[in-house]
Amino acid sequence: MRATTFLLPLLGLARVALSAPSFVSQYELDAGGALRSGDSILDRLREDKRFSCFVEHLEKEKGLRDDLERSGQTTLFAPTNEAFRRAKKEWELSEKDIDMKSILQYHIAPESKITSDCLHAGALIPTGLRLKTLGDRHQRLRVFKFADRTWLNMMSQVMGSEVEASNGRIFAVDGVLVPPSNVGEMLSAFPTMFSTSALAIEHSGLRNDISRKNGLTVFAPSNNAWKALGLANLKYLFSCMGQEMKERSDKMECRGSKDLRRIVENMISDKTVAYSTDMMHEQKMSLKTWAGETIEIQSKERKGRRGSGSGGHQDVRDYNFVIGNGDATIQFTDLLASNAAIHIPSRVLVPENVRLPHGDRMMEMEMEM
Question: CA-CA distance, 53 to 87, in Å (whole number)?
Fold first, then answer.
């Protein structure tokens, strides 16, 4: 019951948290291959008036345009003209610089044959946008399903079936896909889900570190997971009321603040970006956190599943991701950031050297239920 209840605020995504075929490493290869005869992806785009704005931007990026012409099988998610009109209005209001080349690369899945059937809820698709902030890996698109409709990154809806071309296929989308921001900004974008984790990071003085460091895996508990620690423990961690204050680094600090920082440090690993696809491939992963602890993750096949992967790909729906000796599970995988993969554990991962003064409220709740 807890596994579904606490995820409801995240736009009703509990039912799709672990449901996707994984597109494996061959899709991270650079686009290449011989020229194809017939109507290419660019030919199809040019003859369809819905995509004239997208084509205009592609034509300005000659290298990217030529790569599309030469590529082998490629899947392209093409925003409509209306999608670009809406996006430009938003960009005019934003003070941030727009990197159009990166945006265009983020709409391309090189060396991939993705059909409508492949776009299951939770599917993780590597794109042509390769980032140093992800350890020189390709940024992903994540698929969501709402009322039988397909969405990418919760911001763009796939419209209709794919358009075939000689060197791939095209999906029309109703929104421009903008690459995700850093961890700090992504957590702040979902306040009903992550406001407590965001406050813990801020309170610990780690906001700049977690936003600027590259190649992170972050285990961000939901608000409900924090609440399960109990109000007395939360008061201890987030407030110094009733605690002895000591000077540390030119500022006063209490024991609860130190323990909160250790808990936050235990949420973060900078050894590798670990997506659900990596966990399935490795089966067992060990990630050392900033707190010096090691988080062990096991990918265990779910009972009753028949193996729903297609084309030889593993399917996330076939697995449970177990942390430690069953102390917790990953209840939502692959929230994307520019410098990290973010996962939602079923409970706050308290390190061994932290002892909460009012006991482990989550354990008490589990026993009562």
Answer: 12
Give the number of other CB atoms < 10 A from CB of residue 236. Answer: 23
What's the CA gap between 203 and 237, in Å, rounded? 10
Residue 100's identity, in one-letter code, is M
Q: Say how many C-beta atoms besides its own lie within 10 A of residue 3's C-beta.
A: 13
Tell me the DSSP string of 301-320: EPTT------TT--BGGGEE
Please state the pTM of the whole predicted model.
0.85
Range of the domain at 234: 183-368
Q: What is the CATH number of the domain that holds 79?
A: 2.30.180.10
Residue 368 makes CB contacts below 8 A (sequence gap 6+) with: none
Can you tell me whether residue 98 is helix, strand or coil?
coil
Rounded distance between C-alpha atoms, residue 191 and residue 197, angstroms: 9
Query: Which one, of 359, 363, 358, 356, lies nearest residue 262 by Cα?
Result: 356
β-bridge mates for residue 296, sequence order:
286
Rg (CA), the chain: 22
For residues 163 and 210, state if they share a domain. Answer: no
| CA pair distance 340, 209, nearest whole angstrom | 12
The length of the chain is: 369
Q: How sure is the predictor about 304, in pLDDT bands with cuts at 50, 70 and 90?
A: low
Q: Distance between CA atoms of 368 and 270, rounded to whole angstroms?
A: 37
Higher pLDDT, 69 or 23: 69
Q: Which two tokens stand for residue 8?
A: 């409801």
Nearest to 111 by CA among 76, 80, 81: 76
Domain boundary among 173, 200, 216: 173
User: What was the pLDDT predicted at 231?
Assistant: 95
The per-residue pLDDT for 257 is 94
Task: State the pLDDT at residue 360.
Answer: 59
The tally of domains found in the chain comes to 2
**Positive or negative CA dihedral for 241, 245, 249, 255?**
negative
**Which residue carries 């900078």 as its tokens?**
270
Q: Which residues of 37-62 are buried (b: 16+ CB within 10 A; e: fewer)?
A: eeebbbebbeebeebebbbebbeeee
83, 174 contact by CB (below 8 A): yes
